[in-house]
Amino acid sequence: MSSKIYVGNLPYSVTDASLRSNFSEHGSVSSAKVMMDRDTGKSKGFGFVEMGSADEAQTAITALHGMSVDGRSIVVSLARPREASSGGGSYSADGYKGQRADVGYGNGGFGGGRY
């Protein structure tokens, strides 16, 4: 079992330090990070906490899931592994490899798309 926790529906006032503080009551915290918008620098409303062990992570999840923080009921669960993005197509030595079979050169009219 993983010790990385997803924390969602966070108020925008929550910082890395306050997130670490809340979770440290339930075990040792290796890292705590609130995700920030790259353009605005404001919180995205979710973050990740890594606990010292899987047992500490489960204790924190049980204790904090559904807890009200500044009027918002937070979501606390095990973090899922990041999925690989599909990209949308790529160029290679063999030519363009699109994701849709109905779009591309020679597949239905001028420009290659459906009309």
From TrEMBL:
It comes from Ideonella margarita. This is RNA-binding protein. It comes from the Bacteria. InterPro entries: Nucleotide-bd_a/b_plait_sf, RBD_domain_sf, RRM2_NsCP33-like, RRM_dom, SLIRP/GR-RBP-like. The lineage of its organism: Bacteria, Pseudomonadati, Pseudomonadota, Betaproteobacteria, Burkholderiales. Keywords: RNA-binding. Residues 3-81 form the RRM domain. Pfam families: RRM_1 (PF00076). PANTHER family: HETEROGENEOUS NUCLEAR RIBONUCLEOPROTEIN 87F-RELATED.
